[in-house]
Amino acid sequence: MRMLGKRLRPLMLFFCALLLAGCVSAGKDFNHRMVRQIQLHQTTRAQIEQMFGPPWRTGIEDGKQTWSYGYYKYGVSDTLSRDLTVRFNPNGTVASYTFNSSYPEDQGL
């Protein structure tokens, strides 16, 4: 039994190192290239859902309904994130939106 433990120890250490080196993600990735298509006071709630899918989170900000889309990737050496928050007018059109990203390919969007 003791011999078996000695043989398994390096294997267990290897698998622990793999787990620590991996990354964890949260949220749901969305088509961030569609952000440029959003037009204030024109794009509707239905169009936002068509572009990005169902929201990851919903809420209220300053009395306006908000939909949030986010994708967060946490790694040992770096963290990447991408999020979009859309605020709607009472008539269902986009009042405002915010897009933020730390992905290098999203710079300049």
Write a brief structural summary.
By secondary structure, the protein is of the alpha+beta class.
Q: Helix share of residues?
A: 25-40%
- Straight-line distance between termini: 60 Å
DSSP helical segment count: 2
| Helix/strand/pairing category | alpha+beta
Mean pLDDT: 86
Query: Radius of gyration over alpha carbons?
Result: 21 Å
Description:
- There is one protein chain.
- β2 and β3 (64-74) form a beta hairpin.
- The chain has one domain: Beta-lactamase Inhibitory Protein, Chain:B, domain 1 (2-Layer Sandwich), CATH 3.30.1450.
- The chain is elongated and about 70 Å long.
- Strands 1, 2, 3, 4 and 5 form a five-stranded antiparallel beta sheet that branches.
- The N and C termini lie far apart (60 Å).
- It has helices spanning 2-21, 45-52, and strands at 24-27, 57-61, 64-74, 79-88, 94-101.
- The model has no long low-confidence stretch (mean pLDDT 86).
- It has 109 residues and is α+β, with helices and mostly antiparallel strands.
- The chain has two helices and five strands, in the order αβαββββ.
